[in-house]
Amino acid sequence: MSIYDSADTLIEAISTGSGQVTGFGSDTITIDPANDLAGGMECYVLIESGALEDTSANDFAGIADTTTWNFTIDSLPYAASATSRSNTEVIVYFSEAVDQTTAESTLNYSIDNGALAVATATRDTADNKKVTLATDSQGDGTIYTIVISNVEDLTGNAVAATSMVFIGTGTTDNTAPRIISAGLVDSDTVEVQFSEPVELSSSGKETNYSIIDNTGSPVTVTTAARQTDTSKVRLDISGTFTESLYTLTVANVTDGMGNPVVSPDDTAYFAGEGTVPKKLNDGVVIVDPMGEGTNEFSMLTKYKGMIYMGPSGTDDKFFRVNPDGSDPELVTFLFTTDGINYTTSLDPGPDTFNGTEDGIDYITGGTVRVDGTLTECLFIGPSKSSGHLNYIYYTTDSGSTLKFRPVDLDGTNDLLGPATKGVSSMIVFNGNLYIGFPDTGGKRPYMLKIVNIVEIPVVETDVFNLNADDMPRIGKNGTPLNKGNDVGIDSFGVLNDRLYVANGGAAAADQDGGIIRSTTNDPAPFPGTGPDWVDNTPATVAEWDNSGSNRFSKELQGTNKLIPADKAFPAMAVFNGKLFTIRNTTGVSGGPQLWKYDGTNPWELVASNGAGITNMGDADNASITLLVLNGDRLYVGYDNAVDGVQLWRTVDGVTDPALEADFEQVSTSGFGDAANNQRIYNGISIASEGTDYLWILCGKAAGSLRVYRTNNN
């Protein structure tokens, strides 16, 4: 039997004859993995036919699907933040109240591997989530790493081992105060917790505080009062906190030395008395989650049990939240290329080639090998509009400031080209990270497989160039060739332990990209010594290109910050043992399509309108931009600038959709706000309290992000 995570990465294969499987002779089997599984991780178990038998020696049929035995690991309490309060104090906040004995053991805190000593640790008597560390003198502006372990909550659960960073305070305080948290005191009062005492006059001005609810409507602050604990301020409002989620922003509040609160540490989120919307008809979860006004590119991913949204339009923060909508907060970054010096710049340098990284193109989370050990990571795929992209970045942190380390792909190894400007797709499959890079050069596109995350990977040991440029239909040098000017890897998918890769190309038959799949779960570079890759494009199916005449996979019109509508194949998903993909086409007969594949027979068009298009009867559904399996329903989404975005799903009980009638629309077009919801940027499925939720990011050109969620009920 085998345990996999939700990204189909094998966590562990376990023999039924080992001591890790117990319960024989009863109706309950218990599996004990060799290593603890991370809190929040979604997993499933597969069991081979005949691996188990009943007491009459009848073979168990086995489990071959991802849903029969799936589960989510309970999340452990965690250290939420660490902040320097003075030259010799660090304040640590945990996600819940912690045990005094373990919280006050200095052995459970290590700062820069002991370089900055922790003399004492004291749990706060009034707030059992707060611990004050007395340290040696800190360096002004020095970035410290604190590792916290073995602290327990009040029921004895050990806090997940956490590594996070804080910025030291010198003997003269030049460190800006931060908002640590905000929370309701009563129906019209919220208390703001700062990282250090704040100055009386500035903190007492109600005009220095701005509050908006989850719909974007402002709330009037009537009074602001600093408390006896001078790091806390209470705000009263006109009316009551009746909505589900609120965003607080502070301006011009200073500490005793005159240091003001600055972005992004000037923002906090807190729950109101309402409930987080569970369905589209309940309304928006939050408008403009990163408080930036305009954002035309953002993504969703799952990492360490939380949902991450980002990047911000300024590429310097994420928004994250628990699957149930609790604990929303902004997350900032630090980057390094040497593991010693960290900066807030996306391009910490030095670069082997001229130019700097100037944005974030892709984010994803997954469990991969880091220095040989399976570890959950969050990845950033940067953009570099000048070309010669050097790095991708990864973190294993979970604090409110994430340290990202580099993986050097081009500076040392020359794995990418001078026209490689960004990242178009990523997937974690079978413990390996696959990355697609859009390109305009002679070897477009690039596709790498990283089997071991290290700072300087060894070619053909840690990282492999899969030679996508030579793959049929995928690359410029393939047979047939892809004649697109901007060619990337649009999306990846997995069916029956095989990797599928798709992209678009030029508006010409047999030159417009296609689909290729691996024949193994660990494919070698193309062509290799064996047939590890085979063309899977349904080029002979009439609806694919309208019998070779005037329907072509969409060609990229750029290489950076690609939204689903920019791609020919924005997404793939498995539903009841078949691989589905969405396709955007151009030409006289162009339009959106939905296809399915059973792994053996030719691809089939799904929900055709009779003319080879899948638009659910609305010609204004110009682009198909979302495809997500949520529980036992397959969801499909469209961009629509006239009526607003549309979301459709399979009708309850439909397991193999073929016709339009097999789908039903979810909510109204535009989710009740057609003027602002005209694009879908991303969607993911994640479970919360036994219910599968689909989270969706929407918006419009020059508009704000809007976050929604829905379930299958």
Task: Give structural notes.
This protein starts with a strand and ends with a strand. Among the domains are: 1-74, no CATH class; 79-167, Immunoglobulin-like (Sandwich); 179-275, Immunoglobulin-like, CATH 2.60.40.1220; 280-300 and 563-713, no CATH class. With 713 residues, it is an all-beta fold. The protein contains 3 helices and 50 strands. The strands form 12 sheets. The protein has an 8-stranded mixed beta sheet, with no helix packed on it. The model has no long low-confidence stretch (mean pLDDT 92).
Task: Offer a few descriptive terms.
single chain, 713 residues, mainly beta, Immunoglobulin-like, five-stranded antiparallel β-sheet, 2% helix
For the biggest sheet, the summary is:
8 strands, mixed
Quote the distance from N terminus to C terminus. Answer: 32 Å
What ranges have pLDDT less than 50 throughout 5 or more consecutive residues? none
Q: What's the number of helices?
A: 3
How many strands appear in the DSSP assignment? 50
How helical, in percent, are the residues?
A: under 10%
Task: Tell me the strand percentage band.
Answer: 35-45%
Q: What strand line-up does the widest sheet have?
A: 23-24-25-26-30-29-28-27
Mean pLDDT: 92
Shape descriptor reads globular
* Helix-and-strand structural type: mainly beta
Radius of gyration using CA atoms only: 26 Å
